[in-house]
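Record format v2
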Amino acid sequence: MDKIVIKGGKKLKGVVAVSGSKNATLPVIAAAILGSSPSTIKNIPLVRDIRTMAKLIGLLGAKSEIKEHTLTIDPAGIKNYEAPYELVKTMRASIYVLGPLLTKYGYAKVSLPGGCAIGARPINLHLMGMKKMGAKIEIAHGFVKATAKKLKGARIVFDKVSVGATINVMLAAVLADGETRLDNVAKEPDVVGAVEFLKLMGAQITGEGTDVITIKGVKKLHGVKDFSVMPDRIEAATLISAAVMTKGAVKITHLIPAQLALFLEKIKEAGVKIKTDKNSVTVFPYKGKLKATDIITAPYPGFPTDVQAQWMALMTLAKGEAVIKEEIWENRFMHVMELTRMGSDIRVDGNMAIIKGVNKLSAANVMASDLRAGAALIIAALAADGVSEVHRIYHIERGYEGLDKKLKSIGANIYIEKDGN
Ligand code: EPZ
Protein backbone atom coordinates (compact mmCIF):
# COMPACT_ATOMS: atom_id res chain seq x y z
CA MET A 1 0.00 0.00 0.00
CA ASP A 2 1.15 3.53 -0.70
CA LYS A 3 2.55 5.59 2.13
CA ILE A 4 3.47 9.20 2.77
CA VAL A 5 7.06 9.83 3.78
CA ILE A 6 7.86 13.04 5.66
CA LYS A 7 11.12 14.41 6.93
CA GLY A 8 10.18 16.73 9.75
CA GLY A 9 11.70 20.04 10.78
CA LYS A 10 11.06 22.26 7.74
CA LYS A 11 9.26 25.53 8.43
CA LEU A 12 6.47 25.96 5.92
CA LYS A 13 6.52 29.13 3.87
CA GLY A 14 4.54 30.54 0.97
CA VAL A 15 1.01 30.58 -0.37
CA VAL A 16 -1.35 27.64 -0.69
CA ALA A 17 -4.93 27.43 -1.97
CA VAL A 18 -7.80 25.44 -0.51
CA SER A 19 -9.87 23.14 -2.78
CA GLY A 20 -13.64 22.80 -2.95
CA SER A 21 -15.36 21.15 -0.02
CA LYS A 22 -15.88 17.38 -0.10
CA ASN A 23 -18.69 17.43 2.44
CA ALA A 24 -20.46 20.26 0.60
CA THR A 25 -20.14 18.49 -2.78
CA LEU A 26 -21.59 15.12 -1.71
CA PRO A 27 -25.13 16.39 -0.93
CA VAL A 28 -25.16 18.47 -4.10
CA ILE A 29 -24.44 15.37 -6.20
CA ALA A 30 -27.37 13.63 -4.53
CA ALA A 31 -29.55 16.70 -5.08
CA ALA A 32 -28.76 16.65 -8.79
CA ILE A 33 -30.71 13.35 -9.00
CA LEU A 34 -33.86 15.39 -8.29
CA GLY A 35 -33.54 17.47 -11.45
CA SER A 36 -35.44 16.98 -14.70
CA SER A 37 -32.39 18.20 -16.63
CA PRO A 38 -28.57 18.01 -16.25
CA SER A 39 -26.57 19.93 -13.63
CA THR A 40 -23.06 21.30 -13.70
CA ILE A 41 -21.11 21.53 -10.45
CA LYS A 42 -17.87 23.47 -10.43
CA ASN A 43 -14.94 23.57 -8.00
CA ILE A 44 -15.36 19.97 -6.86
CA PRO A 45 -12.36 18.48 -5.08
CA LEU A 46 -10.72 15.62 -6.96
CA VAL A 47 -10.86 13.11 -4.13
CA ARG A 48 -11.95 9.51 -3.84
CA ASP A 49 -15.27 10.11 -2.04
CA ILE A 50 -16.48 12.32 -4.86
CA ARG A 51 -15.53 9.69 -7.44
CA THR A 52 -17.35 7.07 -5.34
CA MET A 53 -20.49 9.22 -5.23
CA ALA A 54 -20.30 9.76 -9.00
CA LYS A 55 -19.93 6.01 -9.46
CA LEU A 56 -22.95 5.39 -7.24
CA ILE A 57 -25.27 7.66 -9.20
CA GLY A 58 -23.84 6.06 -12.34
CA LEU A 59 -25.02 2.67 -11.06
CA LEU A 60 -28.45 4.20 -10.58
CA GLY A 61 -28.42 5.11 -14.28
CA ALA A 62 -27.34 8.76 -14.23
CA LYS A 63 -24.62 9.93 -16.60
CA SER A 64 -21.79 11.82 -14.98
CA GLU A 65 -18.51 13.23 -16.17
CA ILE A 66 -15.65 14.84 -14.28
CA LYS A 67 -13.51 17.28 -16.27
CA GLU A 68 -10.87 19.20 -14.35
CA HIS A 69 -12.81 20.33 -11.31
CA THR A 70 -16.23 20.32 -12.94
CA LEU A 71 -18.79 17.57 -12.62
CA THR A 72 -21.78 17.26 -14.92
CA ILE A 73 -24.67 15.02 -14.02
CA ASP A 74 -27.55 13.97 -16.22
CA PRO A 75 -30.13 12.12 -14.13
CA ALA A 76 -32.41 11.32 -17.11
CA GLY A 77 -31.43 7.64 -17.31
CA ILE A 78 -32.04 6.72 -13.67
CA LYS A 79 -33.94 3.42 -13.63
CA ASN A 80 -32.29 1.60 -10.77
CA TYR A 81 -33.13 2.67 -7.25
CA GLU A 82 -30.72 0.49 -5.28
CA ALA A 83 -27.42 1.47 -3.66
CA PRO A 84 -25.37 -1.71 -3.20
CA TYR A 85 -23.37 -2.75 -0.16
CA GLU A 86 -20.08 -2.71 -2.09
CA LEU A 87 -20.26 1.06 -2.54
CA VAL A 88 -22.07 2.08 0.63
CA LYS A 89 -19.56 0.23 2.80
CA THR A 90 -16.76 2.37 1.37
CA MET A 91 -18.60 5.66 1.89
CA ARG A 92 -21.40 6.30 4.35
CA ALA A 93 -22.52 9.47 2.57
CA SER A 94 -24.03 7.10 -0.04
CA ILE A 95 -27.12 7.24 2.20
CA TYR A 96 -27.77 10.69 0.68
CA VAL A 97 -29.41 9.00 -2.33
CA LEU A 98 -32.21 7.66 -0.13
CA GLY A 99 -34.18 10.93 0.12
CA PRO A 100 -33.97 11.91 -3.56
CA LEU A 101 -34.79 8.42 -4.93
CA LEU A 102 -37.72 7.98 -2.55
CA THR A 103 -39.31 11.34 -3.23
CA LYS A 104 -38.78 11.33 -7.00
CA TYR A 105 -39.39 7.67 -7.85
CA GLY A 106 -41.35 6.44 -4.81
CA TYR A 107 -38.84 3.71 -3.98
CA ALA A 108 -35.29 3.37 -2.71
CA LYS A 109 -33.25 0.49 -1.44
CA VAL A 110 -29.95 1.42 0.19
CA SER A 111 -27.50 -0.81 1.98
CA LEU A 112 -27.30 0.10 5.68
CA PRO A 113 -24.06 2.00 6.14
CA GLY A 114 -22.94 0.35 9.40
CA GLY A 115 -20.29 1.81 11.70
CA CYS A 116 -16.74 2.92 11.06
CA ALA A 117 -13.57 3.79 12.91
CA ILE A 118 -15.00 6.97 14.43
CA GLY A 119 -18.28 5.58 15.76
CA ALA A 120 -21.53 3.69 15.23
CA ARG A 121 -22.94 6.18 12.69
CA PRO A 122 -26.65 5.35 12.95
CA ILE A 123 -29.24 6.61 10.43
CA ASN A 124 -32.30 6.47 12.69
CA LEU A 125 -32.90 10.22 12.32
CA HIS A 126 -32.86 10.00 8.50
CA LEU A 127 -35.44 7.21 8.65
CA MET A 128 -37.58 8.92 11.29
CA GLY A 129 -37.85 11.95 9.01
CA MET A 130 -38.87 9.89 5.97
CA LYS A 131 -41.45 7.98 8.06
CA LYS A 132 -42.98 11.21 9.31
CA MET A 133 -43.47 12.17 5.68
CA GLY A 134 -45.38 8.94 5.12
CA ALA A 135 -42.71 6.56 3.85
CA LYS A 136 -42.93 2.88 4.63
CA ILE A 137 -39.52 1.76 5.88
CA GLU A 138 -38.40 -1.84 6.07
CA ILE A 139 -35.05 -3.07 7.19
CA ALA A 140 -34.03 -6.53 6.04
CA HIS A 141 -30.88 -8.36 4.98
CA GLY A 142 -28.70 -5.31 5.66
CA PHE A 143 -30.76 -2.99 3.47
CA VAL A 144 -33.22 -0.23 4.16
CA LYS A 145 -36.14 -0.27 1.78
CA ALA A 146 -38.26 2.85 1.62
CA THR A 147 -41.50 3.22 -0.34
CA ALA A 148 -44.06 6.00 -0.70
CA LYS A 149 -46.49 6.84 -3.48
CA LYS A 150 -46.03 10.48 -2.64
CA LEU A 151 -44.34 11.92 0.43
CA LYS A 152 -46.34 14.40 2.44
CA GLY A 153 -45.05 17.50 4.22
CA ALA A 154 -44.70 17.05 7.98
CA ARG A 155 -43.43 18.61 11.17
CA ILE A 156 -40.17 16.89 12.06
CA VAL A 157 -38.19 17.52 15.23
CA PHE A 158 -34.71 16.03 15.40
CA ASP A 159 -33.66 15.07 18.90
CA LYS A 160 -30.02 15.39 17.92
CA VAL A 161 -28.36 17.77 15.48
CA SER A 162 -27.32 15.74 12.43
CA VAL A 163 -25.78 17.08 9.23
CA GLY A 164 -26.66 13.94 7.28
CA ALA A 165 -30.26 13.63 8.51
CA THR A 166 -30.95 17.33 7.94
CA ILE A 167 -29.74 17.05 4.34
CA ASN A 168 -31.38 13.72 3.52
CA VAL A 169 -34.79 14.68 4.89
CA MET A 170 -34.57 18.03 3.15
CA LEU A 171 -33.74 16.28 -0.15
CA ALA A 172 -36.92 14.24 0.31
CA ALA A 173 -39.13 17.15 1.38
CA VAL A 174 -38.43 19.36 -1.63
CA LEU A 175 -40.71 17.24 -3.87
CA ALA A 176 -43.23 16.26 -1.18
CA ASP A 177 -46.85 17.41 -1.12
CA GLY A 178 -47.21 20.45 1.12
CA GLU A 179 -45.00 22.03 3.75
CA THR A 180 -42.33 20.40 5.89
CA ARG A 181 -40.89 22.03 8.97
CA LEU A 182 -37.61 20.68 10.31
CA ASP A 183 -36.69 21.64 13.88
CA ASN A 184 -33.25 21.38 15.50
CA VAL A 185 -31.45 21.06 12.17
CA ALA A 186 -27.72 21.28 11.50
CA LYS A 187 -26.43 24.77 10.67
CA GLU A 188 -23.22 23.62 8.97
CA PRO A 189 -22.16 25.50 5.82
CA ASP A 190 -22.60 22.17 3.98
CA VAL A 191 -26.34 22.35 4.74
CA VAL A 192 -26.54 25.97 3.63
CA GLY A 193 -24.65 25.10 0.42
CA ALA A 194 -27.05 22.25 -0.34
CA VAL A 195 -30.01 24.61 0.15
CA GLU A 196 -28.43 27.14 -2.19
CA PHE A 197 -28.19 24.45 -4.88
CA LEU A 198 -31.74 23.22 -4.26
CA LYS A 199 -33.09 26.76 -4.52
CA LEU A 200 -31.35 27.15 -7.88
CA MET A 201 -33.16 23.95 -8.92
CA GLY A 202 -36.45 25.61 -8.06
CA ALA A 203 -36.98 24.39 -4.49
CA GLN A 204 -38.73 26.58 -1.95
CA ILE A 205 -36.77 26.60 1.28
CA THR A 206 -36.29 29.10 4.10
CA GLY A 207 -34.38 29.14 7.36
CA GLU A 208 -31.11 27.46 6.31
CA GLY A 209 -28.32 28.39 8.72
CA THR A 210 -30.84 28.62 11.61
CA ASP A 211 -32.36 25.92 13.84
CA VAL A 212 -35.54 25.63 11.77
CA ILE A 213 -35.80 24.94 8.05
CA THR A 214 -39.14 25.16 6.26
CA ILE A 215 -39.67 23.57 2.86
CA LYS A 216 -42.65 24.01 0.56
CA GLY A 217 -42.80 21.03 -1.75
CA VAL A 218 -42.82 21.74 -5.49
CA LYS A 219 -43.93 19.51 -8.38
CA LYS A 220 -40.68 19.53 -10.32
CA LEU A 221 -37.05 20.62 -10.04
CA HIS A 222 -34.71 21.40 -12.91
CA GLY A 223 -30.95 21.05 -13.33
CA VAL A 224 -28.53 23.85 -12.40
CA LYS A 225 -26.04 25.15 -14.92
CA ASP A 226 -23.64 27.21 -12.94
CA PHE A 227 -23.03 26.20 -9.35
CA SER A 228 -19.67 26.40 -7.62
CA VAL A 229 -18.89 24.42 -4.47
CA MET A 230 -17.68 26.42 -1.46
CA PRO A 231 -14.11 26.04 -0.19
CA ASP A 232 -13.31 23.19 2.19
CA ARG A 233 -13.20 24.69 5.67
CA ILE A 234 -11.75 21.50 7.14
CA GLU A 235 -8.93 21.43 4.61
CA ALA A 236 -8.34 25.11 5.36
CA ALA A 237 -8.06 24.38 9.09
CA THR A 238 -5.74 21.48 8.32
CA LEU A 239 -3.39 23.65 6.26
CA ILE A 240 -3.45 26.40 8.91
CA SER A 241 -2.61 23.79 11.54
CA ALA A 242 0.29 22.51 9.43
CA ALA A 243 1.66 26.05 9.13
CA VAL A 244 1.31 26.62 12.87
CA MET A 245 2.91 23.27 13.75
CA THR A 246 6.10 24.19 11.88
CA LYS A 247 6.15 27.82 13.06
CA GLY A 248 5.74 28.68 9.43
CA ALA A 249 4.80 31.83 7.54
CA VAL A 250 2.00 30.77 5.22
CA LYS A 251 -0.89 32.47 3.48
CA ILE A 252 -3.81 30.09 3.01
CA THR A 253 -6.12 31.34 0.27
CA HIS A 254 -9.53 30.49 -1.26
CA LEU A 255 -11.28 30.04 2.07
CA ILE A 256 -14.12 31.67 3.98
CA PRO A 257 -12.67 32.78 7.35
CA ALA A 258 -16.14 33.28 8.91
CA GLN A 259 -16.74 29.53 8.60
CA LEU A 260 -13.69 28.96 10.80
CA ALA A 261 -14.43 31.62 13.41
CA LEU A 262 -14.02 29.49 16.53
CA PHE A 263 -11.02 27.57 15.20
CA LEU A 264 -9.25 30.85 14.38
CA GLU A 265 -10.07 32.21 17.86
CA LYS A 266 -8.49 29.10 19.37
CA ILE A 267 -5.41 29.52 17.18
CA LYS A 268 -5.05 33.07 18.51
CA GLU A 269 -5.69 31.91 22.07
CA ALA A 270 -2.83 29.44 21.61
CA GLY A 271 -0.55 32.41 20.95
CA VAL A 272 -0.31 32.50 17.15
CA LYS A 273 -0.54 35.76 15.27
CA ILE A 274 -2.73 35.54 12.20
CA LYS A 275 -4.16 37.99 9.71
CA THR A 276 -7.59 37.40 8.31
CA ASP A 277 -8.66 38.88 4.98
CA LYS A 278 -11.83 38.37 2.97
CA ASN A 279 -10.74 35.04 1.48
CA SER A 280 -7.47 34.20 3.16
CA VAL A 281 -5.71 33.67 6.46
CA THR A 282 -2.02 34.40 6.94
CA VAL A 283 -0.17 32.58 9.69
CA PHE A 284 2.90 34.30 11.13
CA PRO A 285 5.77 32.51 12.83
CA TYR A 286 5.79 32.64 16.63
CA LYS A 287 8.52 32.23 19.21
CA GLY A 288 8.62 29.61 21.92
CA LYS A 289 5.75 27.22 22.40
CA LEU A 290 2.03 27.23 21.75
CA LYS A 291 -0.16 27.79 24.81
CA ALA A 292 -2.07 24.67 25.76
CA THR A 293 -5.66 25.45 24.74
CA ASP A 294 -8.75 23.36 25.45
CA ILE A 295 -11.46 22.60 22.91
CA ILE A 296 -14.87 20.90 22.97
CA THR A 297 -16.24 19.66 19.66
CA ALA A 298 -19.82 20.67 18.86
CA PRO A 299 -22.11 21.12 15.87
CA TYR A 300 -21.50 24.28 13.82
CA PRO A 301 -20.65 26.98 14.75
CA GLY A 302 -18.90 25.01 17.53
CA PHE A 303 -15.42 23.56 17.17
CA PRO A 304 -15.60 21.02 14.31
CA THR A 305 -15.04 17.38 15.21
CA ASP A 306 -13.31 17.10 11.83
CA VAL A 307 -10.50 19.33 13.16
CA GLN A 308 -10.22 17.66 16.56
CA ALA A 309 -7.38 15.32 15.57
CA GLN A 310 -5.40 18.14 13.94
CA TRP A 311 -5.84 20.23 17.09
CA MET A 312 -4.52 17.37 19.15
CA ALA A 313 -1.40 17.22 16.97
CA LEU A 314 -0.82 20.92 17.66
CA MET A 315 -1.26 20.48 21.40
CA THR A 316 1.36 17.71 21.60
CA LEU A 317 4.05 20.41 21.49
CA ALA A 318 2.24 23.08 23.55
CA LYS A 319 3.25 24.43 26.92
CA GLY A 320 1.10 22.89 29.63
CA GLU A 321 -1.87 20.57 29.51
CA ALA A 322 -4.73 20.82 27.03
CA VAL A 323 -8.05 19.04 27.36
CA ILE A 324 -10.00 17.95 24.28
CA LYS A 325 -13.58 16.81 24.71
CA GLU A 326 -15.08 14.93 21.76
CA GLU A 327 -18.85 15.36 21.84
CA ILE A 328 -19.84 14.14 18.36
CA TRP A 329 -18.23 10.76 17.71
CA GLU A 330 -17.78 8.22 20.49
CA ASN A 331 -14.63 6.67 19.12
CA ARG A 332 -12.71 9.50 17.51
CA PHE A 333 -9.44 9.10 19.39
CA MET A 334 -7.81 6.44 17.23
CA HIS A 335 -5.00 8.87 16.42
CA VAL A 336 -3.97 9.02 20.09
CA MET A 337 -2.04 5.76 20.03
CA GLU A 338 -0.25 6.78 16.84
CA LEU A 339 0.63 10.23 18.20
CA THR A 340 1.93 8.48 21.31
CA ARG A 341 4.21 6.43 19.08
CA MET A 342 5.70 9.76 17.99
CA GLY A 343 6.58 10.67 21.56
CA SER A 344 3.52 12.66 22.66
CA ASP A 345 2.03 12.38 26.13
CA ILE A 346 -1.74 11.85 25.87
CA ARG A 347 -4.18 10.25 28.28
CA VAL A 348 -7.71 9.33 27.26
CA ASP A 349 -10.52 9.31 29.79
CA GLY A 350 -13.87 8.51 28.17
CA ASN A 351 -14.57 11.21 25.59
CA MET A 352 -11.77 13.37 26.95
CA ALA A 353 -8.13 13.45 25.95
CA ILE A 354 -5.58 15.21 28.14
CA ILE A 355 -2.52 16.26 26.20
CA LYS A 356 0.59 17.20 28.10
CA GLY A 357 2.91 19.12 25.84
CA VAL A 358 6.33 17.57 25.24
CA ASN A 359 9.53 19.23 24.03
CA LYS A 360 9.81 17.32 20.80
CA LEU A 361 8.16 14.66 18.72
CA SER A 362 10.21 11.87 17.24
CA ALA A 363 9.58 10.46 13.79
CA ALA A 364 7.89 7.07 13.58
CA ASN A 365 5.94 4.80 11.26
CA VAL A 366 2.29 5.41 11.93
CA MET A 367 -1.07 4.43 10.51
CA ALA A 368 -4.03 6.58 9.51
CA SER A 369 -7.28 5.21 10.95
CA ASP A 370 -9.56 7.75 9.26
CA LEU A 371 -9.31 10.83 7.09
CA ARG A 372 -8.75 13.45 9.78
CA ALA A 373 -6.61 11.17 11.95
CA GLY A 374 -4.36 10.79 8.91
CA ALA A 375 -4.14 14.57 8.53
CA ALA A 376 -3.17 14.88 12.20
CA LEU A 377 -0.35 12.37 11.77
CA ILE A 378 0.99 14.32 8.79
CA ILE A 379 0.91 17.53 10.84
CA ALA A 380 2.78 15.84 13.70
CA ALA A 381 5.32 14.36 11.30
CA LEU A 382 6.03 17.81 9.82
CA ALA A 383 7.44 18.85 13.20
CA ALA A 384 8.95 15.53 14.30
CA ASP A 385 12.60 14.82 14.50
CA GLY A 386 13.55 12.52 11.60
CA VAL A 387 11.69 10.65 8.86
CA SER A 388 8.13 9.44 9.48
CA GLU A 389 6.00 7.18 7.34
CA VAL A 390 2.24 7.53 7.37
CA HIS A 391 0.55 4.33 6.23
CA ARG A 392 -3.00 3.62 4.97
CA ILE A 393 -3.07 6.90 3.11
CA TYR A 394 -6.15 5.83 1.19
CA HIS A 395 -8.04 7.34 4.12
CA ILE A 396 -6.38 10.69 3.45
CA GLU A 397 -7.03 10.46 -0.28
CA ARG A 398 -10.76 10.10 0.39
CA GLY A 399 -11.02 13.74 1.33
CA TYR A 400 -7.87 15.76 0.67
CA GLU A 401 -6.92 16.70 -2.87
CA GLY A 402 -3.15 16.42 -3.24
CA LEU A 403 -2.35 17.24 0.38
CA ASP A 404 1.21 16.01 -0.15
CA LYS A 405 1.67 18.26 -3.19
CA LYS A 406 0.19 21.26 -1.44
CA LEU A 407 2.46 20.85 1.57
CA LYS A 408 5.46 20.28 -0.70
CA SER A 409 4.66 23.51 -2.55
CA ILE A 410 5.11 25.42 0.71
CA GLY A 411 8.36 23.73 1.58
CA ALA A 412 7.55 20.46 3.31
CA ASN A 413 9.87 17.57 2.76
CA ILE A 414 7.15 15.10 1.80
CA TYR A 415 6.43 12.55 -0.88
CA ILE A 416 4.23 9.56 -1.60
CA GLU A 417 5.98 6.24 -1.94
CA LYS A 418 3.95 4.02 -4.21
CA ASP A 419 3.72 0.37 -3.38
CA GLY A 420 5.41 -1.57 -6.16
CA ASN A 421 3.22 -4.66 -5.57
C1 EPZ B 1 -20.98 14.60 8.64
O1 EPZ B 1 -21.23 13.24 8.95
C2 EPZ B 1 -19.61 14.65 8.00
N1 EPZ B 1 -19.62 13.81 6.81
C3 EPZ B 1 -18.56 14.17 9.00
O2 EPZ B 1 -17.28 14.34 8.41
C4 EPZ B 1 -18.63 15.03 10.26
O3 EPZ B 1 -17.75 14.52 11.24
C5 EPZ B 1 -20.06 15.04 10.82
O4 EPZ B 1 -21.00 15.44 9.79
C6 EPZ B 1 -20.22 15.98 12.00
O5 EPZ B 1 -19.86 17.27 11.63
C7 EPZ B 1 -20.09 14.27 5.67
O6 EPZ B 1 -20.52 15.41 5.55
C8 EPZ B 1 -20.03 13.37 4.50
P1 EPZ B 1 -24.02 13.62 11.71
P2 EPZ B 1 -22.70 12.76 9.35
O7 EPZ B 1 -25.23 12.94 11.18
O8 EPZ B 1 -23.68 13.55 8.58
C9 EPZ B 1 -25.54 11.07 15.49
C10 EPZ B 1 -15.15 13.73 7.62
O9 EPZ B 1 -14.09 13.50 8.25
N2 EPZ B 1 -26.60 10.58 14.59
O10 EPZ B 1 -24.03 15.10 11.85
O11 EPZ B 1 -22.72 11.29 9.23
C11 EPZ B 1 -24.17 10.53 15.11
O12 EPZ B 1 -23.95 9.27 15.69
C12 EPZ B 1 -16.48 13.18 8.10
O13 EPZ B 1 -15.18 14.40 6.56
C13 EPZ B 1 -27.62 9.83 15.12
O14 EPZ B 1 -27.67 9.55 16.33
O15 EPZ B 1 -22.75 13.18 10.87
C14 EPZ B 1 -23.25 11.61 15.66
O16 EPZ B 1 -23.04 11.38 17.03
C15 EPZ B 1 -16.33 12.20 9.23
N3 EPZ B 1 -28.59 9.37 14.27
C16 EPZ B 1 -24.06 12.90 15.50
O17 EPZ B 1 -25.41 12.47 15.34
C17 EPZ B 1 -28.60 9.68 12.95
O18 EPZ B 1 -29.53 9.25 12.23
C18 EPZ B 1 -23.66 13.77 14.31
O19 EPZ B 1 -23.68 12.99 13.14
C19 EPZ B 1 -27.56 10.46 12.42
C20 EPZ B 1 -26.56 10.90 13.27
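The pocket of EPZ is lined by residues 23, 26, 93, 119-126, 160, 162-165, 186, 190, 305-306, 328-329, 371-372, 399 (CB under 6 Å).
The CA atoms of residues 92 and 116 lie 9 Å apart.
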